[in-house]
Amino acid sequence: MPAAKIVLIDDNIEVLDFCRIILSQKYEVITESDSLKALEVIQREKPDLVVLDLKMPRIDGFKIFDKLKEDDETNRIPVLFVTAATQDEDIPNAFWQKTLGCDGFLTKPFSPSDLLNAVEKVFRKKYKLNEKGSGPGFI
């Protein structure tokens, strides 16, 4: 079975490199630092997951997310939000997910295991995978 494809969108090159190094051990990873090119990359690559920074210049992650969800070709792609912005440390991540409609939420800074766990949790939930990463619904 081919590796799942993940598109990482973040304006911070260091964060992109950090995530790419961690995730490329298990997944096919495509990165993009220009928020204006994000939708084009996602539409072209048709990933299994988008890891999307919320706070970016030019076009923020919220607008990119909205455009993804409006498009029939991309609206089923799960999205994991990643951000350093926490509106209120006391608000649980589940609240953010439900409010924003994303499939997962990860706050910077995070460890390699935090990132891997968040990605795997989205895959398990969205594609109904078992703990070993295989199962029905995942191609």
What is the helix tally?
5
Shape: globular
Structural class: alpha/beta
Order of helices and strands: EHEHEHEHEH
Strand order of the largest sheet: 2-1-3-4-5
Strand proportion, as a percent range, falls in: 15-25%
> Which stretches of 5+ consecutive residues score pLDDT under 50?
135-139
For the secondary structure, the number of strands is: 5
CATH topology (fold) name: Rossmann fold
Number of domains: 1
Helix content: 25-40%
CATH superfamily, by name, is Response regulator
Whole-number mean pLDDT: 85
Tell me, what is the CATH class?
Alpha Beta
CATH architecture: 3-Layer(aba) Sandwich
Cα-atom Rg, whole angstroms?
14 Å
Instruction: Determine the N-to-C terminus distance.
Output: 8 Å
Major beta sheet summary: 5 strands, parallel
Give a description of the structure:
The protein is α/β, with parallel strands linked by helices. It has one domain (5-127): Response regulator (Rossmann fold, 3-Layer(aba) Sandwich). It is 38% helix and 17% strand. The chain is built from five helices and five strands. It has helices spanning 13-23, 38-45, 61-70, 93-100, 112-127, and strands spanning 5-9, 28-32, 49-53, 79-83, 104-107. A five-stranded parallel beta sheet has the order 2-1-3-4-5, with helices on both faces. α1 (13-23) links the parallel β1 and β2. The longest helix has 16 residues, at 112-127. It is globular, with a radius of gyration of 14 Å. The model is unreliable at 135-139 (pLDDT under 50).
